[in-house]
Structures are given as C-alpha cells and as structure tokens.
Amino acid sequence: MNKKRWTALAVVSALVFAVATTGSSATAAGVGKDKAIDKKLKQGAVAGKIAADSKGNEKISWNEKKGVPNFVSGKVSAKKLNNASDAVAILEENKDLFDMSSAADELKLSVQSTDNLNTKMFKFQQTFNGVPVFGNELILHADKNGDASSINGYFDPEVKAKGLNTKAKVSSADALKAAKKDTGLTNVKNFNIEKSDLYIYQTQDSAYHLAYLVELSTLENNAPAYWDVFVDAHDGSVLNKIDKVEFAAAVGSGKGVLGDTKSINTESVTGTYNLRDITKPMYSTGGKIETYTAKNGSTTPGTLLTDTDNVWTDPAAVDAHVYAGVVYDYYYNKLGRNSFDNAGGTMKQTVHYSTNYNNAFWDGTQMVYGDGDGSTFIAFSGGLDVVGHEISHGVTERTANLTYSYQSGALNESWSDVMGNLIENKADNNWLVGEDIYTPGTAGDALRSMSSPSAYGDPENMSQYVNTSSDNGGVHTNSGIPNKAFYNFVTTAGVTRDNAGKVWYRALTQYMTASSQFIDARNATIQAATDLFGAGSTEVTAVTNAWTNVGVVPSVPTPGDQYEPNDSQSSAYGPITSGTAYSGTISSASDVDWFKFTTAASGSISLSLSNLPKDYDLYFYDAAGTQLGKSINGSTTAESISYTAAAAGTFYAKVIGYNGATSASSYSLTATYPTSAPVGNWYYETKAFDTPHPYTNSYTGAVHSYTKAGATKVGLHFSRFETESGYDFVKIKDKTGTVKNTYSGTQAAFWVYVDGDTVSSQLTSDYSVTAWGYSIDQVAYFSATPLATENVSPVYPIQGK
User: Fold this and answer.
1) Which of 453, 593, 761, 773 sits CB 3.0–4.6 Å from 691 for a disulfide?
2) Treating both helix axes as pointing N-terminal to C-terminal, what angle do 518-533 and 480-490 enclose, rounded to 10 degrees?
3) Which keywords does this Swiss-Prot/TrEMBL entry list (predicted)?
C-alpha cells in the first residue's frame, strides 16, 4: 500500500491535554515502513517539543539539500548543559531532528570552552565508523544560566546510508606521495607542514569517498605552497585540491613601508639586540613575537634579525615586527584572545622572502612577506591592515577553519578583511583594503573597497554573486558581499567598532564551522549579537538589517504577501477573521508564517491549510506558546486541525515549509472559530467503549457512536490510546459522517468534541504491526438544560479488508 501520504495528527482537548510520541505501555512499537514518513514524524515531534518549550519563539533554519536543520535556537532541552556528558545527552535527545541514529556513535567532541559571558560551547565532529566526515560539525551552546540554547552547523544523514567501506587500501605514505606529485612538490625536502589524515569526503558530484586530507606547506625553492589535497584512500586518485597560499596576493598581502618612525619592542642580550618582543602576556607561557629575514631566499623562518645599537634600519622588518604586536594587542585587549592560537603561541614573521616578490601569506605556521616589485607593490609588511588580515587567517584556521573555497572561502577572506580594518582603525577610515602598499605611483587606489565593493569589480549583493570555479570558487570576488554587510553593520548609528568586532569574532569562534555559507554567517552574527547585547538591542537590529540589505536573507517576502513580517509568535499577523481565507507565501528555507485570532467563547476551532504549492505543515498554539495541535501531511496534501477550546482566548496558527520547502506561489489559510458565546453547559456521563486489545492487522471496525438528541455539541474521552504511529488511524466523525479529527500513535488521555448531537470513532489498521488500541470511558454533551434521551451504541467491527 502507498505510504507516501498520511493523515494529519491533531491533538485536541478541552478539559485534559497532554501529548506523547512514544509510550512504554504499547504492546507493539511502531516500525519504519516508509523512511520519509518516519523521518517527518520524528522531526515534527522534536521540533514541536522545542516550539512548545520555547513558547513559540524558536528559530529553525534548514539545509534543504540534506533535509535537516543547520541552525536551531530556542530551548532545545530541559536538561542543564554543564559538561560534555550533558552535551551528548542533549544531542541524543534531539537526534531525530537531524535524522541521526546515535549521537554517541556519530559525533565526537572536538572543542569545548566557556567564554567571558559564562556561555558554554561544545563542538562535535560528525563521524562514520569512527572516521570524521569532512566539513560536518555540530555546535551546541548553553546560555549563562546553563540552558541549552542552540544547535548549529552541518550534519549529513546520508553518509551512513551509503555504507562506505572505511578500511583504507592506500597507505598514508602513498597518499602523501600522490599529493606531492599532483602539486609538483615531489622533490621538496623541507616542509613546514606535512601530514595526512583520513576523512569521509563528498566530491562535487555528490559521491562519497574515503579519502586522505593531505596538508602540505613549504617555501623551498622560492615556490611557496600551502595545499589541502584529497586523495582517495581506495585507489590513490586525487579527488580535489585547494591552494591556500594564493589568497594573500589576491587581497594585496604586503604593503610598502611609508617612512614613519616607530617604537620597537626588542630583546636585549649581551652585546646585541634581537628583533624579539617579549613584553606581551603570552611571554609568561613562552610565547614571543619574532621577526626573521629570508635574505631574498626561500628558507624560513630564516635568520633572526639583530642589531648592535637598537636603532633599526630595515623598514620591512620594523613594520612586520611592530604591526604583529599591534595585531596581538587588538586580539588580546579587545577580544581576550592570546595569540593566533589562543594559547600564547609564538608569532613568527619572515621578511625579504624571494626577490621582487609580490605576495605575503600565512603558511599554516607563520607569516611571510615579500618586498614587492616597487611598481605594483612595495614591501607587504608596511600595511597594518594586510598584517592583520594575514594573521587573522591563522585565527580562522584554528577556530571555524572555514574551507577555502566558494562561500566558506569568501567568508574566510572577508573575516580577514574585517579584522584587518578593525585593527588598522584609521581616523579617516576610507574602507579600502591594501591602499598603503598597492601601486605606490597611483594615489587613492586599493585592492578592494569594503564600503563599495562594486567600485573594484566585486559584488555587494547576492543578486550580483559570481558563480565561478576559478579562484577556488571566487573567494576573493564574492567576499565583497559579507564585506559590505559588515560595513552596513558597523556604520549603523549606535554600533561601535569595538562592539562590531566582538560580534564578528564571537560568530567566527562560537557559531561558524568549516562548511558555513553566507546564510550561516548571518545566523551566526545575529546570534552572537543576541548573546552579547540582548535580543532587542541596537546591535541585533543593525546586524539583521546589514545582511538583509546585501540580499543574504532567510525570508524574503514575496510580492503580494502583505502579512510579513510575521516570522514569530510575537509578530503574528492578525487578528484574522473567522471564515476568511488568507493567502501567504513561504519564500525561503527559514521563513515561518504566524497568524493569530481571538475567540469570543469556548467551542470548536477549525484550521485549514490548502492550495499548497509544496509540502507545508500547520501547527496550532495557545497564547502561552503551548502546542495544541499539528497537521503534517505529506507532499501537497491539504492540512487541517480541529480543536475544542474550554474557554475564550487568543490562539496562533503557524505555517512552515517541511525541510525548508519554499515557493513563490501562495497557500490559503482559513480559521473558523466561535465569534459569540453559546448558552448552556457541559454534562458528563460514564460510558465504556473498547477496541480489541491488541487489535489485528488489516482491521477496519471498532466504530463507536454516541448520540444525545437535542445537544449542540458532543464529546468522547479516550482514557488510553495506542496505535502504530503514522500507519494505523482513528477517525472522529460528526453526524454527517464528516471526518473532523484523525489520530495516530500513543497519546495521553484526551477529549474530542464535534458540533451537533452525534459523534463516532473508527479504528483502521494496515497490513503489519499492531498496538493496544483505545479505550473510551466517558462521554459528554453541551446543552442549555440537562437532557434525558440518549443513544449509546457500539457498532461491532468488520474483520478484514
């Protein structure tokens, strides 16, 4: 039988209300017959719990390709998050949301920390059979009260389904040889970095491979190289390679010396001075700032620079040394970071690399500066923003470790541009990148502009995004978009440069991962601003608008959707009128539409979501944010919820796209509810109806009907309810035979009500797996006066189908 479409699950109660998705009392647990159904039911249950616990103020952003979230904020658990064990338990609690089998088996803790806001961060690497999955990490956060407040990052549920053989046939040594051959480094003898680690790697054609990530860094033979090479661990072929050294030249790393006089921190030893700064806090653990010269060769770090009278005459060395100190001071004093690795690591830089070398770069261990050719560039160490940019690559590498390609690579470049600008902090900030060292004979030009990227041919809005495979997917070009977003943010009235820097740094170190895209950067910076300054702060509003203005948006209202912004319970559109159809759109993976209405009395409420262009779901809440019902049919099947309220009140409807489904076409939402108070009371009687316990397979029957002549409403109370979730259903009908509610799964005791004087229930099961069934122990009717006439009649089941 076809299981791709299933009936809505609604939870209805006027006197008693509770919901459970599983129950130990069931005699037979449900099994997965259709993975799409099971996944949706499980994800809906977790998302519904988060929504209820968050009082409707949760935010879920979806990874449409994988069908799982990439950012969830709200109350993600009732448990306190104090340590790694708690973190694993909370991720296990939310595993169904990510289509995860076991958090303990599929995730490995890689980083945990507590920051100066007393918030905790736990970063987990996804694994398969113990092998890390490249670019896939989940980060769990706790707020200052110890409450689990967000889960973000990338998790790929498809990996385990592929059943990839994780036993390598190629050795690590052979992978290194293959990588060296492919990058032309076979004859290199001295590597700064030379290592090979095993990963699960997905190529551009979506195929999964067991692969070695080979990292190679060398400056031998005047040929600087810093590569990530992916080598298939089964056949030794090179799957992909990423050149991580070219970024410096592209961003103008290395600027000329301008002739200004500076104070320099050096180390005094017997008879000489070393260009070594031992005044920084990192010195307490052995860290220093050291400046070397390659003497126009390629050996690094080269020779430590010395001087006999402490009057230094090498401008490139002076700038490299002093500016490294400025960079250290900014990170330490403004952001609380102790050196590029946050562990007080020695900061080395080498000047005079090669001859007329138009480049400067971070090689994975230190900074290296060329002298420039005197025409296109002058000495690269002369630009403070360049030095800040390059050292910030080291910071990124040891935090988010943004993959240096496409959008994540553009974010890598942009974050270095931002930090370089903040560190440079010119009084007359012109928002240019590399202006001090680029084309000394031409005044006023630069490599890039953060305030106007388009002036230098770079995009500044997603509508201008450049799709290219060159330059690692346009990492230098498309960085203009997040650069403009930062410019928009930091120049907003009321936002200081220091606070802007704190937001960008916190987003990088606390929320971004190797695979972060522009939308993830938006989510990360908004969350960081919320952490630092509060949800209603100037900073949160400013950073949200900053990304929106460059076209990086989770929800762009489609023309004609007059109800936006209605993306939260607090901003719900309404009150909507009973019986009126409202047409809205779900325009992005993160768009959520909320509507509200107020009833005049107790009674029946009906919600209908129809004309669906994609797979949309419907949820129903009370004023406190408690979920009262949901309808999660498959595909474009219409959704409906019926509910009988015990009293007048304000209620909310929420429309979402399942797994980030979106469309420019509109849906139709209608709410029908009491607009005037009925006259009368509820009266209750004890009656008993039961299905067989357990019921059988292929079962149609157990029709139970209750009629109270003269009543305006009637109801049934289910004291126990257990069916195979998603496959076996109980339909509730009114006097005309119209289905008013459908239930499945395990529910706590609840009432159902219909208008009129007759209500009936009927159980149907499919061809396999059964459960206990249901038991009804009470009936009720609504009338102006007590009624004597009644008709309670079980209709005996018809066996088989």
Assistant:
1) 773
2) 20
3) Hydrolase, Metal-binding, Metalloprotease, Protease, Signal, Zinc, Zymogen
Helices (runs of H) and strands (runs of E) counted in the chain: 15, 39
569-672 shares its CATH topology with 681-795: yes
For tokens 């249901």, the residue is 774
Q: What is the mean pLDDT of residues 371-397?
A: 93
Which pLDDT tens digit goes with each residue over 340-364?
999 999 999 999 999 999 888 888 8
Angle, vertex CA 383, rays to CA 379 and CA 389, nearest 5 = 115
Q: What's the CA gap between 341 and 328, in Å, rounded?
A: 11
Tokens coding 607: 């919600």
In the structure encoding, which two tokens stand for residue 181, read together?
């051959």
- Quick one: CA dihedral 106, 112, 114, 115, positive or negative? negative
The whole model's pTM is what?
A: 0.69
In CATH terms, 681-795 corresponds, of 3.40.50.300, 3.30.450.40, 2.60.120.290, 3.30.70.890, to: 2.60.120.290
Residues designated catalytic: 390, 476
**Phi/psi of residue 746, each to 5°?**
-110, 120
What are the φ and ψ backbone dihedral angles of 488, each rounded to 5 degrees?
A: -60, -40
Distance CA 575, CA 594 (A): 11
**DSSP-assigned beta bridge partners for residue 571:** none
Q: Tokens standing for 253? A: 């790393």
426-461 CB burial, b ≥16 within 10 A, e <16? eeebebbbbbbbbbbeeeeebbbbbebbeeeebbbb
CA 373 to chain CA centroid, nearest Å: 44
If we measure between CA atoms, which residue out of 137, 131, 202 comes closest to residue 399? 137
Report the chain's mean pLDDT, rounded to a whole number. 86
- Which sequence spans correspond to the domains of the chain? 54-162, 172-243, 244-398, 400-554, 569-672, 681-795
Rounded to whole angstroms, the Cα distance separating 361 from 304 reads 19
Neighbouring CB atoms inside 10 A of 588's CB total 20
Summarize pLDDT for 732-752 with one digit per residue, the tens.
899 988 888 788 888 888 888
- Please list, residue by residue across 636-649, b when 16 or more beta carbons sit within 10 angstroms of its beta carbon and e when fewer do: bbbbbbbbbbeeee
CB 301 within 8 A of CB 190: no
pLDDT digits (tens, 9 = 90+) for 257-307: 477 888 899 988 877 899 999 999 988 888 999 999 999 998 899 999 999
